[in-house]
Design goal:
This protein is of the alpha/beta class. The protein has helices spanning 16-26, 45-52, 78-83, 102-111, 129-139, 158-163, 166-170, 214-221, 230-244, and strands at 2-8, 32-38, 56-61, 75-76, 88-91, 97-100, 121-124, 144-148, 155-157, 173-176, 202-205, 225-227. The chain folds into two domains: 2-100, Leucine Dehydrogenase, chain A, domain 1 (Rossmann fold, 3-Layer(aba) Sandwich), CATH 3.40.50; 105-230, Rossmann fold. Strand 5 (88-91) and strand 6 (97-100) form a beta hairpin. This is Shikimate dehydrogenase.
Length: 249
């Protein structure tokens, strides 16, 4: 039995187990199982690998271990190295552990469904989720500005955006990488001058529960195109599967 799974600290709301279980049934994939492995501390990771060997083929990694797990890997691909976060691990037949970041691919593929020529972006949030997004924007040659609660040499603040509407007018792609608006706090949204949005704007929210966030609703009210994080989530899951099964291009 080939074993796959997800490691993290709290996994009761995991998307992955249900997704891969349905994938195995739908596509007639046999002799595979996908389980959740909650780790109270990343120090338990080596024991998990030992206990699941030699059947373990691959793992996904979620918060808070996307950075911490890197110390236990034998190598990483170029995107994971640049992003400094791993969410997919491939276990080779000889036990070598290789880290990847499939979030990068999931976001990039989902974003490219839009017409992006000539657009620049505001990236809301500077946490771990923003790292793969920024790398994808750089590789797509899309200029971007990071937005945080406090300004710094690398970020502007929400107060600055609210004081100067040109930030909204000049950046037609707005990406929310914060958890604001996630169920059950569905009324929350980033502090932006939403009255400055137009039908030319594109709003991408990494949140996928609820399907329509308060942030996205503001975009819809202005006639903008919107997208939630579900397609990105599916994309990163399928990329993980391709990596584990040597179908990665």
């Amino acid at each position: 039995m080939k074993k796959f799974g997800l490691i993290g600290k709290t996994l009761k709301h995991s998307f992955s187990k249900k997704y891969f279980g349905e994938k195995f049934d739908r596509e007639g994939i046999e002799n595979c199982e996908y389980e959740l492995y909650e780790l109270p501390d990343i120090a338990h990771f080596p024991d998990l690998i030992k206990n699941l060997s030699p059947d373990l083929v691959g793992l996904n990694v979620t918060i808070p271990y996307k950075l911490e797990v890197m110390q236990y890997l034998d190598e990483m691909d170029e995107h994971a190295t640049a992003i400094q976060a791993v969410n997919t691990i491939k276990v080779s037949a000889d036990g070598k552990l290789t880290g990847y970041n499939s979030d990068y691919y999931g976001f990039k593929d989902s974003l490219m469904e839009w017409e992006l020529a000539g657009k620049s972006a505001l990236v809301l949030g500077t946490g771990g989720a923003s790292k793969a997004i920024v790398k994808a924007l750089e590789d797509l040659s899309i200029p971007y500005q990071m937005v945080s609660r406090r300004s710094s040499d690398k970020t502007i603040s929400y107060d600055q955006i609210n004081e100067n509407p040109d930030f909204i007018a000049d950046n037609l792609l707005i990406i929310n990488t914060t958890p604001l608006g996630t169920y059950p706090n569905v009324e929350e949204k980033p502090d932006l001058p939403y009255d400055q949005l137009s039908a030319d704007h594109l709003l991408f929210d990494l949140v996928y529960n609820p399907e329509l966030t308060a942030f996205m609703q503001e975009g819809i009210n202005a006639g903008a195109k919107t997208k939630n994080g579900y397609a990105m989530l599916v994309g990163q899951a399928e990329k993980s599967w391709a990596i584990w099964n040597d179908k990665d291009e």
